[in-house]
């Protein structure tokens, strides 16, 4: 019994040890150098051979580390003898691509995406009212003119509607929220339910709602812009929810 107790005690002394992959260690170090500003955008990383010599890792580990950084959008790599890896900063498009993969792989429901939009977009409208430039306001107006003419063409209407909402988001000047808005907009646009939930009455109502929101933005009335966007998005989300539930 004593020997068994001692054996059990010895078994509990050490927890399992997880040793990180060599490629992950190298990717982490290079990532820290890039994000810390030690290697600026546009500069080249050491060549693959130099990284092998400096890190003393295998060529396959170095290549895997570089692939990780490329997927993250931190480097762009050109193959061949004259190629190499150049540092870049990931754009908002990388957030959008990741979100689209997440939505598709997890079969996120349209209702959840609309709830996210409802949480974000009224605040963006308020920021746009405060932060927009005259050029951005002109862009919104130009898109709105095309929007008015598109109400009888559902495919064009959907695309121009998306363009208008994204232009308004960009006028907010909040890079994080713009990235989030861009990330959720395309999955909403691609959703079958979104393509189906529309009527001529809804499209004409959206035209009026956009005009009212733009009026508040032009007056730099942040609270009114938030309120009108909240009403606009809520109305559509309610109709979409009712239509989608009716098909289940």
The CATH architecture of the largest domain can be given as Up-down Bundle
**The CATH topology of the largest domain:** Four Helix Bundle (Hemerythrin (Met), subunit A)
Secondary-structure element string: HHHHEEHHHHHHHH
Structural class: mainly alpha
Strand order of the largest sheet: 1-2
* Helical proportion, percent range: over 70%
> How many domains, in number, for the residues?
2
Note the main attributes of this structure.
single chain; 248 residues; mainly alpha; Arc Repressor Mutant, subunit A; Four Helix Bundle (Hemerythrin (Met), subunit A); 2 domains; two-stranded antiparallel ribbon; 12 helices; 73% helix; elongated
Describe this structure in words.
By secondary structure, this protein is mainly alpha-helical. It folds into 2 domains: 2-87, Orthogonal Bundle (Arc Repressor Mutant, subunit A), CATH 1.10.10; 93-247, Four Helix Bundle (Hemerythrin (Met), subunit A) (Up-down Bundle), CATH 1.20.120. Helices cover 73% and strands 3% of the residues. It has 12 helices and 2 strands; from the N terminus they run ααααββαααααααα. Strands 1-2 form a two-stranded antiparallel sheet. α5 (92-105) packs across α9, α6 (110-131) runs antiparallel to α12 and α8 runs antiparallel to α9 (175-190). The longest helix is centred in the last third of the chain and has 26 residues, at 222-247. The protein starts with a helix and ends with a helix.
List the helices and strands and how they pair.
Elements: H1 2-11, H2 22-35, H3 48-55, H4 59-71, E1 75-78, E2 84-87, H5 92-105, H6 110-131, H7 134-149, H8 154-170, H9 175-190, H10 192-196, H11 200-218, H12 222-247
Antiparallel strand pairs: 1-2
Helix pairs in contact: 2-4, 5-9, 6-9, 6-11, 6-12, 7-8, 7-11, 8-9, 11-12
């Amino acid at each position: 019994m004593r020997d068994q107790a001692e054996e059990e005690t010895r078994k509990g002394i050490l927890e399992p040890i997880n040793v990180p992959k060599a490629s992950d260690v190298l990717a982490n170090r290079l990532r820290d150098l890039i994000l810390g500003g030690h290697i600026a955008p546009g500069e080249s990383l050491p060549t693959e051979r130099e990284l092998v010599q400096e890190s003393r890792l295998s060529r396959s580990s170095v290549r895997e580390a570089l692939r990780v950084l490329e997927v993250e959008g931190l480097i762009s790599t050109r193959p061949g003898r004259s190629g190499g890896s150049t540092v870049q900063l990931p754009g908002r498009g990388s957030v959008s691509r990741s979100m689209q993969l997440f939505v598709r792989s997890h079969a996120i429901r349209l209702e959840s995406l609309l709830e996210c939009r409802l949480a974000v977009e009224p605040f963006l409208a308020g920021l746009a009212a405060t932060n927009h430039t005259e050029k951005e306001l002109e862009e919104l107006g130009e898109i709105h003119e095309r929007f008015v003419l598109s109400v009888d063409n559902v495919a064009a209407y959907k695309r121009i509607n998306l363009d208008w909402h994204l232009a308004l988001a960009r006028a907010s000047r909040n890079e994080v929220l713009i990235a989030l808005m861009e990330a959720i907009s395309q999955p909403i646009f691609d959703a079958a339910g979104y393509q189906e939930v529309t009527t001529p009455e809804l499209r004409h109502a959206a035209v009026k709602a956009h005009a009212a929101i733009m009026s508040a933005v032009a007056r730099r009335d942040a609270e009114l812009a938030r309120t009108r966007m909240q009403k606009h998005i809520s109305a559509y989300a309610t109709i979409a929810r009712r239509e989608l539930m009716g098909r289940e």
